[in-house]
Amino acid sequence: MKQLSLAEDPCPKQILEFQSESKIVLNEENLREILLQPAIKNKQVCIVSIAGTFRQGKSFMLNFFLRYLTLKYKLKKSVPQNWINVEDGDISGFPWKCGSERHTLGILMWPEVFIAEIPSGEEVAIILLDTQGTFDNQTTKQNCAGIFAISTLISSVQVYNLKDKITQLDLEHLEYFSEYGRLTLNTDSSSTHFPFQSLCFLIRDWQYSFERNFGTKGGEEFLNHIFLAPDTPLTLKQQNDNIRNLFEKITCFLMPFPGEKVASAPSFQGNLEDIEQNFLKYVEEFVPLILAPENLVAKISNGNKVKVGDLFYFIKNCCKYFADQKLPQLSSLFMATSEFHCEIASEECLSMYKKLMESHVRDKVLDEDHLYVLHCNEKTKAVDHFKNTPIFGNEHFKRSYETVLELKLQEMFLLYEKFNKTKLSVQQALENQKQQHDEDLMQSLEKMASHHQMKKKYIEDNIEQNEKMLGAYRNKYESRDPKIMEQVERVQRLSEKEPVQKSLLWQILDYCSCLKTN
Description:
Belongs to the TRAFAC class dynamin-like GTPase superfamily. GB1/RHD3 GTPase family. InterPro entries: G_GB1_RHD3_dom, Guanylate-bd_C_sf, Guanylate-bd_N, P-loop_NTPase. This is GB1/RHD3-type G domain-containing protein. Keywords: Coiled coil, GTP-binding, Hydrolase, Nucleotide-binding. By secondary structure, the protein is an alpha/beta fold. It is 54% helix and 12% strand. It has helices at residues 28-35, 58-74, 141-154, 168-175, 178-186, 216-227, 234-246, 260-264, 277-291, 308-320, 330-361, 368-388, 395-477, 482-497, 502-517, and strands at residues 13-18, 24-26, 44-52, 107-109, 114-117, 123-131, 157-163, 196-204, 247-254, 300-301, 304-305. The strands form 2 sheets. Strands 1, 2, 3, 4, 5, 6, 7, 8 and 9 form a 9-stranded mixed beta sheet that branches. Strands 10-11 form a two-stranded antiparallel ribbon. α10 (308-320) crosses α11 (330-361), α11 (330-361) packs parallel to α13 (395-477) and α14 (482-497) packs antiparallel against α15 (502-517). It is elongated. Residues 180-191 and 324-328 have low confidence and may be disordered.
């Protein structure tokens, strides 16, 4: 049997865990390794989480999600309606086991991020989360709520995995988060944003197919029966309304029983032949409803698309409230979300300011007054952008971040000012060096010109004296000795071609005198 490869048999990474009775700790190294990969950190993200009561088959179901993601987005296969094949091997990935003891602890994230192209042509990264089961008799209600709350905050699709039906306790558990939702909705009465995006009730081992069929249609009927029944008592109706106001979309899917071997046989290792065909049939229907390209729900927070890298900082913000060794109140989770939105908006504004300022100072040297005017203009643009960005939180909280943003912008300006001063100093030094060079050059040229004038005058004086002396000798010896005259004429011709030194002329004339004497 050919085993379908899952990226060299990876295993889920723990990103949150309990280190003591009430302290949740973030594994930042695992989170960074998955979410800050350069190839994916700037992509939109769809986060699918599964949560619910412990020992209800959450991890087992996630492995079918993995099978679909591998076929569709990793191996790039055309996925037919009947996409689960025995030939692809056993179901594997997220660990699970039979029995009554809890297995998954904290929150696990699958390390492989799958990239899908949605109908708009955009790419969306898909991330799977597995969460610790609630009400395991070893974890307090507040701790269970904390795990559920964080996974719901992180995810764009929360699969609420329940057994048999939706009970009043299940709804009470969901309503436990209504304070968070109410705080969120009351921050801006005109806001149309829900605190969470998509909730899917996955009802496992549905026993009443004679009343409502398996699948989406039966699930929709069952959901309407729960939330819209006309005879619902007022208190329960208010509870249901609170839940409906938490999520932008709520759906339900009724899933059949997977078979006795899956439910109770310790020897079961994921062999598809041990699983009931009717169960596999509805898994083939259910999983694409979550993970098919046209059904992917990209993570949106306060109306803004969240990128994979943003998710890293969002999770960090949520978890820092656990640093005091106690789980936060729901209002603190609200503050974590508000802080996340403010930090993302602040980073956008800082990036905007940086881009604008660098366009001014990159290839120019500006005087200090002009640089300050540019800073004020670009700072105003950045702060206005922050003010106009919808923020998850009250105005006081937003103003505090605005103040911090202005301080950061001022710090960035000081760096640009220092950079410009350095360039200005270098430019001034170069100008001084050029000026000094020009002055030295002029002095050298003036010296050369003066020397040339002196030499020219000296030569002219010599030529004048030479001509006088040659004329005197010509007059004196012209009628007396042809040889002397021949030498005089020779000296005269030479002096016409090149200035003759006085000493040389005197030597020649002395020679002529000697000839005369002889």
